[in-house]
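It is worth pausing here to work through a concrete case rather than discussing structure prediction in the abstract. The textbook approach is simple: state the sequence, then state the predicted structure, then interpret. We follow exactly that order.
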Amino acid sequence: MPPPVSGCLLLLDVPKILFRALLSVHGLHFPLEETVVLIGGINAGAAYNGTENSTTTIYPLSADEEFSFILTEILALANGGGTATSEVLRAASQILPGDFESWYNEFNWLGMRIHDLATQAKSATSKREALFRASSYYRFSSFFLTGDSSDPRLYDTFEKSLEDFHEAISLLPIPGELYSVSGPSYHIPGYFFKANAGNATKLPTIVVGSGYDAAQEDSWHALGKEATDRGYNFVTYEGPGQPTVRRKQKAGFIPEWWDVVTPVVDYLSQRDDVDMNNLALIGLSFGGQLAPRAASREHRFKAVFSIDGLVDMQAAVLDKFPDELTTLFKSSNASFFDKVVSSALDQPDTSTLFKWFTSQGLWAFNTTSYYDWLSQLGKFALTQELVNNISAYGWVGKGEDDDLVGGQEDVLARYYNASGRRDATFQLFPMNLGAGLHCQLGAEPYLAQAAFDWLDGIVSI
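Step two, the predicted structure:
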């Protein structure tokens, strides 16, 4: 499920239109109003302005803002054993800014080398740790390749990633389990990680869904161990449009997200180690928009989390367009809209973020039309009416420096509070503690403390 190190405003010449390129996330990013990227040091030469300052951005890892952000995302996985800091920093030093091939080559090479370490390991612990890291590097090697769905590397490296992850979870002290359940026209793959809770039988259980681009395997490293160490079963899943289902079943995102989540809940209800009275649903980034959609019809959750989530991604995109382009989209002239976006992509100075965000959209929504992709996004919007149907307790998180979508997290909290059911808990994560990025990248222990301490209180009700 993030903004780049600060934000970017890029104007492109597109047939008489000033085209603002979008910033995306691990989930989704959009542009802020200014760029503050100082390679070689943040605020180099500037006067020290105190420990309470929250305006300084996170140290950039690349001269390319989108590369820098995704590198930060990969580095953050080290908190949960998904990567190692020096391995990531060394790769970052070798990658050419904005060059998708050098990105692929470095992380694929790193995946192979760390996989070799796993094969040489003498203990199960050493092998498991190396397999987790190799899996992450394989997975991220193809991150920027979604612009060509016929590229075999999109599939080959992902398959290697899954193989290493599956072997790694089999070596956990309490082995992780793979499961697969059926949706209306697709299968939903997932993982079940049992809590570290001694002889307890039925345990409170957290179900986590990612967003626009992130893989469910990342969620284990971000929050999984934090959850299981606190006595929660930890469950992940992927639906249409998300990495495994998109690759293996060619299924794009669907707005009926309850059709994805309800089969997962049905599966959990058949297990003898799940307390069905204490289920929580977490959505990260775009998943923070999908989770409330699911909870509006699936009422077996006691709590629903939207972590830096969205209310209306389409509105957020259109808000970053110049008026002329928004008018063009609303005119329903699909062919001309597609030509305009294609023209923007052909400009020599087009940002990495814009290239990736649009190509990821076509890939994840399984379409070849930019107009169709953007139109589909509108079908996912959260409304007051939809939130009124949520019976669970709500928790909405926002990173202080994650001003991506015009305060949509605040809007979602207001929807909860106006529903007449239960007020939502709103949590702002400050930048001066390094927690202000999208989905609190790099500050996962703080996120876990805030979210799971709150959940402890809900479970006890």
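Step three, interpretation. Confidence is low (pLDDT under 50) at residues 1-44. The chain is about 45% helix and 15% strand.
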